[in-house]
Amino acid sequence: MTSPQTIDRVRTPPIAAARVPGFTRLALLHAKYNILETIRIPIAVVGNMLFPTLAMFFFVVPQSSVTSDPLWSLISVAGLAMFSVMSTFLFTFGVGVAEDRQLPFDPYLRTMPAGAGPRMVGRLLSAFLFAFVALIPLGLVAAIFTAAAPQLPRLLLGVGTLLAAGVPFLMLGLFIGYSLSSKAAIAVVQVVLFPLAFAGGLFMPAEMFPSWLATLSTFLPSRAGRDLVIGAFAGTDIYAYALPVLIGWGVLFAALTVWAYRRDEGRRFR
Questions:
Q1: In this structure, is residue 5 part of a structural domain?
Q2: How many domains does the chain have?
């Protein structure tokens, strides 16, 4: 005779194993929520879009000697576009990460089994999206009011180079974000961003610098990125060590980011 326990075991369907989300799905989810959090504060998006575009409109467009020359127009646009990408990455990661670290939910997320990878990739995707969006109004002003008119392959290569040249500043932003409080991060980002932009020739063309400053600036990541972008857009020659300089700074900032992340993790939780 069959016991009731045996009947229950026969009739009860097996419980299906829970499907674990993959790395890509988790990264896209993090990117989605980072984007939603950002656009809920529109000034965070509009600010990154407005400053380079207004600088282009007020300081470059009125200079007919610049706007009528295709090469000088591209040089001006490339510098301000590089500043736009730098600003987006430094504020998104420097200030954004520092603010997240002050929330109680942040240490909880960092102890989840998925690890830091999907969350970091999600941040990267959202930052690249906002950096690209910030370039659109700048490109429209350049197309309407200047003689800058790169061919489509050059345009695509230039935009790709812009985003790639911003990676060292992304790493610098992460280092600042994992090292400082949000109030300190805002000040440090501003102190780092504007001197690098001026010395890198993003506001005033480096070709107009004194010789000593022009030489010194070639060792800065902002100048190296700017010249690589100009070379991509215009097809002009760039100084030979621009790419090694940019990669070297990127490796240094990446190492500092790893150190700051582990230091913050060991200090706040284990």
A1: no
A2: 1
